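Hey, can you fold this one?
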Amino acid sequence: MEIAKGWRDYVLLDAGGGEKLEVWGNVTVIRPDPQAFWPRSFKWEKPDMHYHRSKSGGGTWELLNKKTPQAWKIGYNGMKFHVKPTGFKHMGLFPEQAVNWSWLQETIGAYGSPPRILNLFAYTGGATVACLKAGAEVTHVDAAKGMNNQARDNIALSGLTAVKHRVLTDDVLKFAQREARRGNMYEGIIMDPPVFGRGPGGEMWRLEDGLFELVQACVGLLSERPLFFLINAYTAGYSPQAFGNVLAVATNNAQLLGRVNVGEIGLSAKSGVLLPCGMYARWTVC
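Sure. Predicted structure:
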């Protein structure tokens, strides 16, 4: 498992009992985490915010410190992000993704000229900001207008508005198919597909039905000097190798020479436990 390192504004204090205890900036938060089914390492103090999951789905935030702001800012390695707790327990950022951000920046930095990167299911733009910071040109696509607005805010907060980029609200498969017809090409592709979702026009997305079609369409968008294809996933019940197989088959079908690496990403708690947080599959040129 690759562990996210270098955080100063985020700390995982402990995880256990189906929850995790975190500090975001100066705000202490307890949130559910189904991976943390072992006992807690110590008695947790009352947090500023506590998310309680509902048995009927979703959940609600309990505000235990009235001085807690509705939104605030944190930084990582010269980048800055807005933290905005949502009704789905998320905070607007996934700190374990620092693993992928560092890998992306190292890979982009070795290219020699500004590569064109396509980021799909791009959420609030953590990977977009990381790629822009490394000097890449980024096309950011997500079906949720609100997430794209926050991505624009994060780009501006990090001082990267002058770096060439697009932030688009669209269905990712339809966008990829249109890009192919337009002849637009990219050196790198990133995607963070959900298990289930809907496009801006109500388009239905199911990972097991749609992932290979999407990956195959995106492989066709890779330029003659490609860098990488990264799939990030949080999907319980699937192995990282399953996503690696999707990439391997799609790139082999396109007769692209490269290698596929897979693995897990996670966070190390102050208490000493390691919390698994997701998985990746990366295709890179030989």
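The mean pLDDT is 95. Let me know if you want another pass with a different chain boundary.
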